[in-house]
Each structure stands twice: as C-alpha cells, then as structure tokens.
Amino acid sequence: MISPIFNQIIKLSATSIINSHIQEMEKLVSSWCKNKSLPESYIFPPETRPGNLVVPTCSTIPVIDLSKAEGQNRTHIVQQILKAGQEYGFFQVVNHGVPESLMNESMDVFKEFFEMPWEDKAMLYSEDPKNSCRLSTSSVNYAREKIHHWRDNLRHPCHPLQDCIKHWPQKPIRYREVVATYTIEAKKLGLRILELVSEGLGLESRYFGDKLSESEILSINHYPPCPDPSLTLGIAKHCDPNLLTLLHQGDVSGLQVFNNGEWIGVEPLHNAFVVNIGNQLQIISNNKLKSVEHRVVTNSRVTRTSAAFFIGPSEDSIIEPEKSLVDDAPFYKAFEFKDFLLHYFPNLEDNEVVMGRFKSQA
Ligand code: OGA
Ligand code: NI
C-alpha cells in the first residue's frame, strides 16, 4: 500500500509541475484571445499578410477518386496523381478507404482535446521540441520568431505505436483508442498513395514502403477565431519537410497553396484528405514531383481544427535523388535526413534556403 505521506508528495509534485506550466500556457492563443484585439506581435509585415482575404477557392486542385485505383482505371489514377504532384504539389483524395465514422470521431476528439480546461492540458505544454508529445503555440521558433502565428498545436509521433501511445493525451478518455485506429488507417492510406506514386515514377511499388516512410507524426492545429484575419496567419508559408502529408482539414476553410504566382484556397471537401508532397519526395524524385509552399489564413467566425499526418523517413535514412530518375545530373546531393531537419526548422519560412543547402551545386 502507498503510504499517505508518499501520496501527498506525489500530489504536491504534480501540482508544482502544473503550476510551473500555468505561466507558459498563457502563451497559447486560445488562453487569451477572447474579446481582445490583435496584438502587435501577431501582425505580419504587409508583404506576407493575407490582406485581401477573398482568394479564388480552387476547383483546380485535383480531386482524385481512389476507389478507381484498384480496377482497370489504375493507370489513369496514377497519371492523375503524378500530374497533380508535378503541377500543384497538392491533391485531394476521396473514397480513400478510411471510414467516414473514424474521420468524424477523430475530428471530434481533436476538438474536444482543445476544449478541455487548461488543468487537463497543462502536463503536455512544452517548449522543448524533443518532447515526445507536446502542446505548444505558434511555430517551433516561438522564442526566436519576430511574429507569432495564430495557432495552438498538439503534436506527437505515432510509430512504433506501443512506445508512443503512452505519451499521448490521457484525456479525452477515448483519445488514445480513437487516434491509434486513425493513425493506423492514415498510414495504410499513405502507403497506398506512395505505391501509386512509385508506379507513376517507374519504381517498384514498395520503394517508399520501408525506412523512407518509417516516421509518423500527428500534428493537430487549433486556430481560434481571430479579431483581424487580414493581418495575421495561422501558419506562415512553408513546405513540409517530410515525404508525404495527409491533412484532415475538417469543414472550415483556411489552407492556401501557392500556384502560378497567387494563393489559392483549398476547398474543404467532406470526408476527403488533402495530400501534399513533402521536400523529401521532391528530392528523391529529382524534381519530378514538387513540394509546394502553403499557408493557413484565419477567420473571425469559427474555430478551425485540422490534423496533419506527416509520413517521413527515419532520421538516419540517407536521402538522395533516385538514380533511375536522374537524366543528366542529380539536382540534389546525398544527405542524412536528420541533417535536413536541423537545417529546416530555423529556416522553415524560406523554402529556397531550406532546399538550397542540399542542391548538388551548393
Ligand atoms: C501543417 C499545415 C495546414 C492546415 O501543419 O504543416 O500546413 O490546414 N497545415 O492546418
Ligand atoms: Ni504544412
């Protein structure tokens, strides 16, 4: 039996951990934003703010029906994916096999997490990017960045599941069960898409199936209503550093993709995933696929919740352009993925700088 004194000590130390988090947690946008005007530190310079919020929402980003990939239309679907990956770096998939009930239940549990009182979230707040499950705000560069982003974020790895799951939120009670099922399904879908990509590139279908897709990170974004969406951003422009991202953007718009010199909105489609090509897929495909800059705008009416599932290489993977895809010279040199990440995070808003470091002539 645990002695009452020992019990008391446990309680006291838990309380002091929570207390030490209270002050830090006040940085979360959701903790202070109600009925406040937009603070100076969230106002982007004129050239990067969204300004005119009416952007064309796009029926141009392809919507691909994955149910057709298993029949005689497979080659056609493969071509659609490749073309979308070359032209936009983005596409949406429907009839993708992840049950609608699971998509809805996961979105509900993500929303419930952020709606919980702060005491239930305090243990997870951390400013250390190495923490295995962390609640934070703005970007990884909070302490260094000039302008903060209008978002809170919960992020954790998902593989190997039995090691990771014990660090995930304990509340809402069904979080672990629902999210575990969700991430297993999302990984399966990601691998299916990567098989189609491989076929399109003329690689064996399991090409990306092993170490190149070993890492799975779930990143849940919470964007509260914003007093002035024209001046700030939920996430500033960036490319994803991984291989492939599957985004569940719910039914509130906000994601914009840079295309042909303008920002276009990605229309929320019920029960669809937005898929985008990460930096590593651009590099391995030797620029046959493009990793494209995107950003998130806020709105003044409703909270937006989105969940990005990042599939990426293990940190010790060696990344380089696949030889069979190199015509003259490779566009990039070989590197270890962990070195890419080290260079990515301090420079994440400038894709030229991120990729420039790994170009073969650099
Ligand atoms: C991201 C991202 C888009 C969104 O998390 O990298 O681009 O719509 N998210 O939240
Ligand atoms: Ni992104």
From TrEMBL:
Keyword set includes Acetylation: no
Position of the signal peptide: none
Listed GO biological process terms: defense response to oomycetes
Cofactor(s) it depends on: L-ascorbate
PROSITE patterns membership: FE2OG_OXY
Fe2OG dioxygenase domain location: 214-313
Family: Belongs to the iron/ascorbate-dependent oxidoreductase family.
Name of the protein in its database record: Fe2OG dioxygenase domain-containing protein
Upper taxonomic lineage: Eukaryota, Viridiplantae, Streptophyta, Embryophyta, Tracheophyta
